[in-house]
Amino acid sequence: MVIAIIAAMDKNGVIGKDGVLPWCILEEMEFFTDSTMGHIVLMGRKTYESLKIKPLPGRISIVVSSDTSYKVAEGVLLFNDLEQAEAMAEEIAQAAGMAVFVIGGRELFEEYLPKADLLYLTQIEASFEGDTKFPVYNPEEWAVIVSERRSSSVGIDFSTSISVRKRP
Ligand SMILES: NC(=O)c1ccc[n+]([C@@H]2O[C@H](COP(=O)([O-])OP(=O)(O)OC[C@H]3O[C@@H](n4cnc5c(N)ncnc54)[C@H](OP(=O)(O)O)[C@@H]3O)[C@@H](O)[C@H]2O)c1
Questions:
Q1: For a designed S-S bond to 135, which of 19, 65, 68, 110 qualifies (C-beta 3.0 to 4.6 A apart)?
Q2: What CATH fold (topology level) applies to the domain 6-49+105-165?
């Protein structure tokens, strides 16, 4: 199973504010949609709550929460245990030839940074106020395979990259 992390951050590593994204950049969302479409998206409960459309169309949504009475929208798979969530993701991924995208938030990124195979990062060339940052990670552990600079209709430039974990 291929596990990919996908995240967008500002110049200072900010990824969230008050439970949502600090920015609204259509072109950045398009990169997220294009990358994850047709795959499995694994997320924490807070990221799930931040989504405007639940489940994300065209993807299999898996959510983790420790709250056993937590209710999710029809079509969303909820697990109280991350290992069980990952086992289900693996089963579906193998059967359907899909990848698993860990889409956040910080807690899930922290959990999967040591074991993800691919890292899809969007670096926004601006600073935003926020309360949640991408975890500290070592870029030396990753080899960039694709990188692209992009501009947006709101005048904020950003770059996207896809990196693969360096294996010894
Ligand atoms: N810029 C980006 O790329 C990006 C991407 C995603 C999210 N975000 C932002 O990041 C912020 C949310 O991140 P966050 O770190 O606060 O929250 P999060 O990772 O989205 O969700 C955390 C919650 O997930 C559940 N959880 C985590 N690990 C678990 C485990 N091992 N077993 C069971 N449940 C588990 C818990 O839910 P319970 O409390 O219900 O137990 C926990 O409180 C928001 O502002 C969001 O907009 C940004």
A1: 110
A2: Dihydrofolate Reductase, subunit A (3.40.430)
The CA distance from 107 to 26, in Å, is: 25
Asked whether residue 47 carries a pLDDT value surpassing 80, the answer given is: yes
Alpha-carbon span 122 to 152, nearest angstrom: 13
What 3-state class would DSSP assign to 88?
Answer: helix
- pLDDT band for position 167 (cuts 50, 70, 90): confident
Q: What is the pLDDT of residues 71-128, one digit of tens each?
A: 999 999 999 999 999 999 999 999 999 999 999 999 999 999 999 999 999 999 999 9
Which tokens belong to 114? 């040591």
Contact 69, 80 (CB under 8 A): no
Give the ligand 1 atom nearest the CA of 79: 33
The single residue listed with the structure tokens 């996207």 is 160
Does 132 sit in the ligand 1 pocket, CB within 6 Å?
A: yes
Q: Is the CB of 45 under 6 A from ligand 1?
A: yes
